[in-house]
Fold these 2 entries.
Entry 1:
Amino acid sequence: MPGIPKPLVQVIDARKTYVLGNRRVEALRGVTLEMPGGGFVVLQGPSGSGKTTLLNLVGGIDHPTSGKILVEGRDITAWSDDDLTRFRAKKLGFIFQNFNLIPVLSALENIEYPLLLQHFPRAEAKARALDMADAVGLAGMGDQRPGELSGGQCQRVAIGRALVTGPALVIADEPTANLDAATGRAIIDLMHQMRDRTGTTFVISTHDPAIAAMAEMRLTLRDGTLVNS
Amino acid sequence: MIFWELALRNVLRNKRRSLSTVLAIGLSCAGLVLFGGYVAWAHLASETHAATISGHLQLFKQGYRTKGAGNPAAFAVENYEGIKRQLREDKVIGPLLEMVTGQLLVQGMISSADRQTSTVFLGVGAAPDDLERLARWNPHGLFDVRDLAANAALFAAGPELAQDDPDGISLGVGLARLLDLRMPSHGSAEARPTVELISQPPSGGMANMISATVRKLSTRALEELDNRLVFMPLPLASSLLFPGEEPRVTSIILLLKDARDLPRVEARLAELARQGKLALEWRDCWDLNPNNVRSVRMMDMFFLFAFCIIAVVLVFTIYNTMMMSVMERVREIGTVRAMGLTRTDIIRLFTIEGLLLGLAGSVLGLLLATGISAIINRAEILYIPPMVTMYAKLQVLVTSSPGIMAASFASCLLVALLGAFLPARRASRMVVVEALRS
């Protein structure tokens, strides 16, 4: 309907069942939800509640056993691996609990890497990466390798890397779990700032009620089911 | 370009492992190049040796191949000088010729009146200068075995025959022993031993006999030849078989400037034969010296066998290195896949890493081979090859065999690619969420 913005992400009756030996584990049991564009969404729930599974499905790195995932109105569940890969490169950014930076690249090169994968000219990629490094508070630290950075600095690099291509959606799976409380808070603040600056939607999973309190939209999962929104 | 940079940094990430892999590739590549260089030398030495024994081609009277060996004198080629002239003046063959000469095979009895001994002999009548020129034929510039101190005794008494020594012949050491001949010591005034050669002319009638003096004793490669072979000047041999007639030969020997012209010369000979201008049959040096062909084929088989073993070991070495690299980087693979690297990109990344290892190893191998070959060629490593009696010097033709260097280099690269491909394929097939969870 005209005037009503379409949600960025729609999850429609998504189910995911894993087979572990003879055991079937239902990680998601029919989740339906919508996430608006430009929002700051927090997924919370105890371990094993299905947070990471839901993030993986929304991030196009896993397929639901049944149900649909729509991003920007397009159903990504039936896409091929190559189509999903291209989609992830252009539309998504990922932030991981363990940072997952590439150890042989410097902080600046880690930020630059997604741009080079999208065939940006070297000079432009470097300029954008420098801007992003400044924006995430890494000015002057671009030449350092991940092994030479603190956990908070590594996560700043990861945020820069996730945002540098201008994605519509950033998925962060427990991004503060390996950081102390103060650093974790600073990282969430940075994500807020970057959301405000870029308009990118952030979807974050966390156990931390303090971080959940900073969200604009909170989704709680328990035993693979959405219990409140 | 990003893949090459990233691959290079990943290769350098575990320096010790990469270094050991590069060393393994380098040593294997060097081994291949050195063995290839030795085989290359064996090919050239074999070709040269065959040419020094029989020339590149020998022309015989029709039917010699099937029946001539039993009575070579009966198959002697008449008009020897005329045919030589015809070949030299031929517009195709002439420019390709280095030398045309003839040899006459003689069978009969050899005896020593002084020692009261006799036995059968197989004689080769040859033009002394041509025989020496043939023996010194060295178109590829290989190390001349005459320069080896270990062979000095073989060449100390001069050539087998001499132009200015018309009745001087040379015998095998075994034949001299059978005849109980003793050569005067070097520099003494004692006369050379005299022998009598008796043979039946092919025209029939009485056996003919000539006298000759023994100028040199040489050890022959085979005992059979050592006990029977006699080299004598062509006019002397011809006077034994065809007294009072113009010289005839059993075969006309063609020595070419370049052995690669052999097919052209054979084609021209066939054309002349079809036109009725040449009533002769011919055999090339490989046909006349089958052991040379077998020796180099055996070397080729050894090389192929060594290559297969080295290739298999290298594939497993590189596979092992790359598989360890993949297993250490599972989460990284999951991360870059999530970021947008396709399965093909992952294969590309890991195969480039394997290629870089192969490239570094192959370059190292070529450098090692060049250095080691220089040491080997400078050192005097001697051995006696099959079918000859003199020492040869071990030589490896590395820098003068760019084909072998290029082939070894390319083979090692190919093997590195093969060894890297399977781990790369495995990395590309990882499930992203499982890789991230590791």
Entry 2:
Amino acid sequence: MTNLKTANLNKWLFNPFIYIAGEQALFIGWIAMLLASGIAGFSKTHFDGALDVHFGAHAPFVTSLIEQCVAWLSVTVVLYLLALIFSKSRIRFIDVAGTIALARAVTLIFAVLGFLPIWDLNKPVWLILGAFLLLLPIIWMIALMYNAFSVSANIRGSKAIVCFIIGLLTAEVLSKVCLHYLMPYL
Amino acid sequence: MIKKLPSVCPSCSAALKITSLGCEACDTIISGKFELPVLAKISADDQQFILDFIKSSGSLKEMAQKLNLSYPTVRNMLDDLISKLSKND
């Protein structure tokens, strides 16, 4: 019974996409991303890339929101294209978009962590401690994004791992290029 | 207790065949070698999935709602079943 409960908890923590996807996941993910962008403005947190989290510089809400959108959209578009190429199932864009949005709900944790007074280059010991603190939510977000891709694209095993790594790296580059061209207008 | 219809030999794991059919009313027994129907070769869960799918008029959205699962999860289950059936062909 306990094993069953733990298994269910693990599924909800790392693969909620078994139960939630599509419009519902998109809605929940977007609410979380909006909240994270709002908090990030106060905690001086930036999500300036598919996998990036940086602390220290103040940014208005619009900038935070656009950073979030670019990060989410770049991962979604790249993984959707990979799914179209490598999956044998009929893939829906809304499933990839929704599940990736829900996976990015973890950015809420980063936005809150930005309030900690340890993100100071003059305090290297605190900074290292902070880096370790960030590791857990980063691993969680990557695991969620991988499962989001695996469920929405119906790709599993080594093929899914290779596609996901290539996709994530491509999305990181794409998001950086997009933000580079967008930032002068913000 | 509902007896499960075995499709694989418990001794050598080869596919089983029907060798006799009986009439309960007059005790007639027909012997021969008959193939198991494709649907009888899959698991009870998979058979139930197919029944639910037909009862939902083939709507994956309705199936997802009934099973409390997401749409892609149900679609993946169906795709897995299709590939299982293709292997059995």
